[in-house]
Amino acid sequence: MPGWPELEGAVLDVAPRLLGAVLRHDDVAVRLTEVEAYDGPDDPGSHAFNGRTPRNSVMFGPPGFLYVYFTYGMHHCCNVVVGAEGRPSAVLVRAGEVVDGLDTARARRGSTDRDLARGPARLCQALGIDRTHDGADLSRGSLTLTLPAEPATDVRTGPRVGLRQAADRAWRFWVDGEPTVSTYRPAVARPRRR
DNA sequence: ATGCTGATGGCCT
DNA sequence: GGCCATCAGCATG
């Protein structure tokens, strides 16, 4: 397995071990403080729940690659593919602290430093990640993931954000006390616009 | 602090 | 046609 045996375990085991990892794209680097687990065929909240499609095909590949999707007509979110090849599990990268490339990140976002990567779409914007990075190999190239030497302490869990499906599963993981962790908002049905 | 709303387009049935 | 793994901006307490 090329390079990523540490990402091949069950998604619920691997997800909290991504806390404290550093995701880097060229000069900008983010230390992860909040993630969510998605477990393919058994998870109604997963993009892969209904099988393989052109959009989600990276999720079915080997671990250590990036799955990037576009949503709400204007936002990108990124996931680290984990688990064995063929099982579409992934960890949504929800928030972190910019630890390198502050000037670039500020120019891309134009927000306070605390909000540079606070939320999955903000994090992608700060890092300059979009669909062209779908399928990127995180073990080499301009987009890399570095796992922490020691697992994070003070890890908390709770329900995932923004989901209407399987909202009861406490599959969100964050580092307690981190100011970059996004505040929890339960998903609410909004009336359709005309 | 919490709450609502418009923006905006790909994706899937 | 309906649904989003969202965010910024503005409102109110």
Number of discrete domains = 1
Shape: globular
Low-pLDDT parts are: none
Q: Structural class given helices, strands, pairing?
A: alpha+beta
Mean pLDDT: 92
CATH class reads Alpha Beta
Head-to-tail CA distance between termini:
50 Å
Count of distinct strands: 8
Order of H and E elements: HEEEEEHHEEE
> In CATH terms, what is the architecture?
Roll
Largest sheet: 8 strands, antiparallel
- Number of continuous helical runs: 3
Rg, nearest Å: 16 Å
CATH level-4 homologous superfamily? Methylpurine-DNA glycosylase (MPG)
Describe this structure in words.
This protein starts with 10 loop residues before the first helix and ends in a 19-residue tail after the last strand. The longest helix is centred in the middle third of the chain and has 8 residues, at 102-109. Strands 1, 2, 3, 4, 5, 6, 7 and 8 form an eight-stranded antiparallel β-sheet that branches. The chain has helices spanning 11-17, 102-109, 120-127; strands at 22-25, 28-39, 66-71, 75-82, 89-100, 143-146, 155-158, 172-175. With 194 residues, it is of the alpha+beta class. Helix 2 crosses helix 3 (120-127). A hairpin with a 2-residue loop joins strand 1 (22-25) and strand 2 (28-39). The chain has one domain (5-175): Methylpurine-DNA glycosylase (MPG) (3-methyladenine DNA Glycosylase, Chain A), CATH 3.10.300. Helices cover 12% and strands 28% of the residues.
